[in-house]
C-alpha cells in the first residue's frame, strides 16, 4: 500500500487567504477494507526551554476532510467500511487556513487532559489562549521555538488488518500577507537640543526642538524603507550652524518563549543603516526663531527593511516583538563645534510585505 500527496501549489508559501488543495494518490496491490481516509491541516507552536528540558506545544488550528468514502456514499446506509480494489485511486482534497489562531477553541474544558496545549511540568496551571493572526512558519526542531504547519493523511482500516495508519506527513510553508491601512496617528519622539554659545556674555538662550516621527505609526513593512521624518525647530534668535554628522537606524528584536511555567527571552540586533562623517547641513546662521528645518529623507529612503526578518507575532507560548532605535549625531555651534548624540526609541510592529505595490505612497501621501 502506497500513498502520495500532490499539491496544486508545490512551490512558494501559502497565506491566510489561500487554500491548500491537491490530490491523494493511493496505490494498493490487493483489495483492502477501509473505513475512512482523512486529510488534516494543522498548525503548531512549540517552545523549548533549558535546551529542550521543558517543552510546551500549542495547536494553533486543525482542519479535517474525509476524502473517502465519497460524500454521496456516506449518505447511503451501508456498511461502516468499503473494499477498495487493487490499483491506483485518486482523491481530491481542499483545506483553507483560518484567519486567526483557534487554540482557544480546541481546548475549552480545563478539567480534561489538554491534548492540544501540552506542558510537561505544572500542568495544573491554567493556560491562557490568545486570539491572534497566524504566525509565519519559522524555526526548526533544534531551535528554542518553532512554528510548523503540515498535512497529515490517515487511513482507518477494518477487517483483519484493522487499525489507524498515518501514511503521510507533508510540511506546508506559511507566510502571512499584510493589507496596509492608513495610520491612525503619527508616532513621535521629541527632545530639546540646548546649544551653549561661545561667548559667556551672551544671555540669549539657543536650542533646537528635535522631532523624530514615524509617519505610519508603529507599523513597519518588511521590504520597504522606514517612513521617517526628522525636523528641528529653532528656539532663539542667535546665529548657529547645525550639521547631521552621524545617523543610524537599528531594530532590536525580542523573542519571549514560555514553557511549563517558565519564561526565557532572547534579544537580536539588526542594524538597518549606519553613517558617519556625513556633514549634512541642517541649519545655517540665518535661520530665524521658530524656523522648522527638515532633514531630507534621501539619507534613509534607499535602505529597506530586510525581508528575512521574522514579522512580529504572538501565540500562547511564543512572541516576537521589535523596537526601532534611531540615533542622530548633531554637530552644532558657531565658531566652536561639538557633537551631541541623540537617541530615540520606538516600539514597532513588523508586518509582512504588503500586497499593494506602493502602500506608503498610495495611502500616506496626506501626511506629508
Short description:
With 368 residues, this protein is mainly beta. It has helices at 71-74, 103-106, 359-364, and strands at 2-7, 19-28, 32-49, 54-68, 82-84, 87-96, 117-119, 138-139, 145-157, 163-172, 187-194, 207-214, 219-221, 228-235, 241-259, 262-283, 292-295, 313-314, 318-333, 337-351.
Question: Can you put this structure into words, describing what you see?
Answer:
By secondary structure, the protein is mainly beta. The chain is built from three helices and 20 strands. Strands 3, 4, 5, 7, 8, 9 and 10 form a seven-stranded antiparallel β-sheet that branches. Strands 13, 15, 16, 18, 19 and 20 form a six-stranded mixed β-sheet that branches. Strands 11-12-14-17 form a four-stranded antiparallel β-sheet, with no helix packed on it. A hairpin with a 4-residue loop joins β3 and β4. The chain is elongated, with a radius of gyration of 29 Å. The C terminus is likely disordered.
How big is the Rg? 29 Å
Note the run of SSEs as H and E. EEEEHEEHEEEEEEEEEEEEEEH
Low-confidence stretches: 107-116, 119-126, 361-368
- Count of DSSP E strands? 20
Mean pLDDT, nearest integer? 82
Largest sheet: 7 strands, antiparallel
Terminus-to-terminus distance = 65 Å
What is the CATH topology classification name of the largest domain? Immunoglobulin-like
Please bin the fraction of helical residues: under 10%
Count of DSSP-assigned helices: 3
CATH architectural arrangement of the largest domain: Sandwich
General form:
elongated
Task: Kindly estimate the percentage of residues that lie in beta strands according to DSSP.
Answer: over 45%
Q: According to CATH, what is the class of the largest domain?
A: Mainly Beta
Domains, number: 2
Amino acid at each position: 500500500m502506497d500513498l502520495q500527496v500532490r499539491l496544486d501549489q508545490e512551490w512558494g508559501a501559502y497565506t491566510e487567504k489561500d487554500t491548500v488543495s491537491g490530490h491523494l494518490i493511493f496505490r494498493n496491490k490487493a483489495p483492502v477494507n477501509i473505513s475512512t481516509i482523512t486529510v488534516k491541516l494543522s498548525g503548531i507552536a512549540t517552545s523549548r526551554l533549558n535546551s529542550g528540558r521543558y517543552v510546551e506545544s500549542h495547536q494553533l488550528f486543525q482542519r479535517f476532510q474525509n476524502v473517502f468514502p465519497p460524500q454521496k456514499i456516506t449518505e447511503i446506509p451501508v456498511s461502516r467500511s468499503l473494499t477498495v480494489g487493487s490499483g491506483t485511486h485518486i482523491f481530491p482534497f481542499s483545506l483553507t487556513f483560518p484567519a486567526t489562531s483557534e487554540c482557544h477553541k480546541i481546548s475549552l474544558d480545563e478539567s480534561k487532559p489538554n491534548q492540544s496545549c501540552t506542558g510537561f511540568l505544572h500542568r495544573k496551571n491554567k493556560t491562557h489562549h490568545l486570539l491572534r493572526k497566524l504566525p509565519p512558519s519559522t524555526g526548526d526542531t533544534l531551535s528554542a521555538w518553532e512554528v510548523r504547519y503540515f498535512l497529515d493523511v490517515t487511513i482507518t482500516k477494518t477487517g483483519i488488518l484493522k487499525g489507524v495508519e498515518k501514511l503521510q506527513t507533508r510540511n506546508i510553508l506559511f507566510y502571512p500577507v499584510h493589507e496596509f491601512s492608513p495610520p491612525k496617528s503619527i508616532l513621535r519622539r521629541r527632545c530639546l537640543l540646548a546649544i551653549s554659545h561661545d561667548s559667556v556674555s551672551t544671555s540669549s538662550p539657543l536650542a533646537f526642538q528635535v522631532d523624530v516621527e514615524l509617519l505610519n505609526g508603529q507599523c513597519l513593512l518588511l521590504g520597504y524603507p522606514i517612513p521617517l521624518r526628522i525636523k528641528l525647530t529653532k528656539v532663539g534668535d542667535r546665529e548657529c550652524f547645525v550639521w547631521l554628522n552621524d545617523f543610524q537606524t537599528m531594530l532590536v528584536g525580542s523573542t519571549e518563549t514560555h514553557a511549563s511555567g517558565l519564561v526565557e527571552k532572547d534579544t537580536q540586533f539588526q542594524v538597518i543603516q549606519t553613517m558617519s562623517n556625513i556633514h549634512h547641513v541642517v541649519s545655517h546662521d540665518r535661520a530665524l526663531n521658530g524656523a522648522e528645518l527638515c532633514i531630507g529623507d534621501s539619507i534613509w529612503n534607499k535602505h529597506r527593511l530586510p525581508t528575512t526578518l521574522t514579522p512580529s507575532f504572538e501565540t500562547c507560548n511564543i512572541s516576537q516583538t521589535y523596537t526601532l532605535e534611531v540615533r542622530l549625531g548633531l554637530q552644532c555651534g558657531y565658531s566652536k563645534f561639538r557633537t551631541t548624540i541623540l537617541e530615540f526609541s520606538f516600539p514597532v510592529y513588523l508586518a509582512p510585505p504588503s500586497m499593494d505595490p506602493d502602500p506608503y505612497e498610495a495611502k500616506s501621501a496626506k501626511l506629508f
